Amino acid sequence: MCTYLTFAEAVSGSAKGPGGRWMRVTDATVYFDHPVHAMAEHTINVDITDPGAGPSARVALELTPDSARRLASAIGAALASAPASLGGDGDG
Amino acid sequence: MSENLSARTVKIRGFGGDEVEAYLATPDDAGRRGGVVVIHHMPGYDRATKEIVRRFAEMGYDAICPNLYWREAPGADPDDAAAKARAQGGVPDERLIGDVEGAADYLRSLPTSNGKVGVIGYCSGGRQSVLAACNLDLDAAVDCYGAFVTGTPPEGFPLQVRNLVDQLPNLRCPLLGLFGAEDKFPSPEHVAELDSILAAHAKEHEFHSYPGAGHSFFSVDRPAYNVEAANDGWQRIADFFGKHLAG
User: Does ipTM exceed 0.85?
Assistant: First the structure.
């Protein structure tokens, strides 16, 4: 299956990219499709990029659907654990 | 079959007169022969695709694969280039047609050309192979599990892809279709719809669907690789191009 479906989102932060260098990142794309490297037929693929720095300024993830769900859940849980006053979703 | 061959990177004139990188493989012997334009899969102009180009040279054809993501990401790793092209919405159909036309013209300009050129594409390139065959003068086309030749892309589709149903009456050459019976895009229903549309318009075509094979069964470096389907598929391709590209 080749879904073509791609979800794009603006992000703000940093990522450790090619050559072990940190970079500011501004864009994320998420799609369900064939991986380049993971030994699975389909994966959730996430690209976190700095488009202004060229195509190689990218951190790529290919996660099996179950592990992608667990990661999304963990991100939600971490946000819920932090108080709203700090930008989290939790109390306080 | 050709025992000796050469492979190299060249520049061709693609859509809009743009200079586009392409991978060329040719048999070393001087006889006249047909040409094959290879359209790479959505993951890009990668090592596995270049192996396919060399295989066509080994089969006796001049073969070329344009880097469809060259404009977005010249010189980038294939996976980085594919990610950038995807984020920007994919390859517009008009540009694809121009790039394949440039690649076909390049093959016809070779002193070894017999004037005949076929096209083959994999995954997204399967759809693009049909697209090219509906818009360009080619002698044979092969669609390897291209999604959205028929069928409707889901709502809110961000990529510039639509089905080719309105273009199929313009198909200009015989079409060989190779599909996995377990594939969802294209599903067996999509393949049956394509078959019936081509039959209704009296377009010469030959389809094979392989039980137990899913999408991307020719991909030797992926878990989807299916030996039985790929071996039979390569034989079908050899017979098809042998029939339609012979000089």
Answer: no
Closest residue to B159, CB basis, from A4, A36, A54: A4
Domain count, chain A: 1
Residue B40: give the domain boundaries.
5-244
How far CA B8 is from CA of A6, A28, B25, B61, in Å, comes to 33, 35, 7, 15
Handedness of CA B190, B195, B198, B204 (dihedral sign): positive
Give the predicted TM-score (pTM) of the model.
0.91
Query: What distance in Å separates residue B136's CA from the closest CA in chain A?
Result: 25
For residue range B191-237, list pLDDT tens digits in order. 999 999 999 999 999 999 999 999 999 999 989 999 999 999 999 99
**B143 close contact with A: CB closer than 8 A:** no
Domain count, chain B: 1
Query: Could you confirm whether B144 is annotated as catalytic?
Result: no
pLDDT, position A1 = 47
Give the torsion through C-alpha atoms of B53, B58, B62, B63, to 10 deg.
-10
- Geometric angle at alpha carbon A30, from A28 and A33, rounded to 5°: 145
Radius of gyration of chain B (CA): 17
3-state SS, residue B119: strand
Query: Which pLDDT value is given to residue B161?
Result: 77
Map residue B100 onto helix, strand or coil. helix
| A92 falls within a domain | no
- Identify the pLDDT of residue B88: 86
Please identify which of the residues B40, B41, B205, B215 carries the catalytic annotation.
B215
- Residue A90 falls inside a structural domain: no
Q: How confident is the model at residue B162 (pLDDT cuts 50, 70, 90)?
A: confident
Phi, psi of B191 (to 5 degrees): -65, -40
Q: What residues of A are in contact with residue B161 (Cβ under 8 Å)?
A: 4
Helix (H) or strand (E) holding A47: strand A43-49
